[in-house]
Specification:
Organism: Nesterenkonia jeotgali
Strand order of the largest sheet: 1-5-4-3-2
Structural class: mainly beta
Largest sheet: 5 strands, antiparallel
InterPro entries: Glycosyl_F510_1955-like, TAT_signal, WD40/YVTN_repeat-like_dom_sf
Number of strands: 25
Helix content: under 10%
Protein name: Photosynthesis system II assembly factor Ycf48/Hcf136-like domain-containing protein
CATH class: Mainly Beta
Number of helices: 0
Keywords: Signal
Number of domains: 1
Order of helices and strands: EEEEEEEEEEEEEEEEEEEEEEEEE
Distance between the termini: 17 Å
Strand content: 35-45%
Shape: globular
CATH superfamily: TolB, C-terminal domain
CATH architecture: 6 Propeller
């Protein structure tokens, strides 16, 4: 693992709904020199400053409570304010946690990797130390990716659904999703799109939720609690599966990655990357704590 002593996140502008459009970063994986500066090298012991690159996802691993970032140069764990690189260099355009502690991801291989281009759906069962191709290697770069107990849903220009990570069905969706999220328990799927926030029970039929504004990112904290990042920079929260919403008093900034969960006392925790900073909030974005 490599500690990144300069906590530098080279995040790009989102435009209307973000750099998550399916063409973003296409053809500019780590092996092709996208972003300035050298990325962290797998297995290096150097403590030199290093760039993380674009951040495409943020989660808290429930197995150990550590915040994990999916970045242009691979996985990064946030440990006491430091960023520690884990595993090989892979441009992780899509990333999600699956039941059973599995990490699922997609994107582009780094220099020296034996993964295909694009990597398709890849899996790690050792917290990102190594990755194996499950399916669609050389075919799919899922920029939006989510998983629940019953299905994996990804968008690579088409909406695809799989029950086993190997065989896929192509479905329709009213608008291309920038972000996808699956509710724990119910398996309900959210999609943040330019047509609004869409909700589906299984990915086959969709309804548009009434929301205060368009959202660039969405996440479920539990089976009824949704956190979203509005395009005006405010965090918005629903405790009733999208029937009603509250917004933060002031904008938190341009959110490029968002995750959510519940704390032990039942508070809604949102994890977010804003500009060059990793933040945490438990009051809907009214106050924030810097993690890195």
């Amino acid at each position: 693992m490599t500690t990144l002593t300069r906590r530098l996140l080279l995040t790009g502008g989102l435009g209307l709904l973000g750099a998550g459009a399916v063409t973003a970063c296409a053809g500019t994986g780590p092996s092709e020199g996208a972003d300035t500066g050298a990325g962290p090298q797998n297995g290096a012991d150097s403590q030199d400053d290093a760039a993380v690159g674009h951040v495409h996802g943020i989660v808290r691993d429930p197995s150990d409570g550590v915040v994990v970032l999916a970045t242009h140069y691979g996985l990064v764990r946030v440990l006491e304010g430091d960023m520690v690189s884990v595993g090989p260099t892979v441009d992780l355009m899509g990333f999600t946690l699956a039941p059973g502690g599995r990490y699922l991801a997609s994107g582009h291989p780094g220099a020296g990797s034996d993964l295909p281009e694009p990597v398709g759906l890849i899996e790690s069962t050792d917290q990102g130390e190594s990755w194996n191709v499950l399916s669609r290697g050389g075919e799919s770069d899922f920029h939006a990716l989510t998983a629940g107990a019953d299905r994996i849903v990804g968008f690579d220009g088409e909406l695809r659904v799989s029950t086993d990570g190997e065989n896929w069905e192509t479905l329709s969706i009213p608008a291309p999703p920038v972000a996808l999220a699956t509710a724990p328990g119910t398996g309900a799927i959210l999609a943040a799109t330019e047509a609004g926030v869409l909700l589906s029970s299984d990915g086959t039929t969709w309804e548009t939720l009434e929301t205060p504004q368009l959202m660039s990112r969405v996440a479920w904290a539990d089976e009824t609690t949704i956190v979203g990042s509005g395009i005006d920079g405010r965090l918005v929260t629903s405790r009733d599966a999208g029937q009603s919403w509250t917004a933060s008093e002031e904008p938190v900034g341009e959110v490029v990655a968002l995750g959510a969960g519940l704390t032990e006392d039942g508070s809604v925790e949102a994890l977010l990357v804003v500009d060059s900073t990793v933040l945490r909030t438990v009051d809907g974005g009214n106050t924030v704590e810097q993690l890195a």
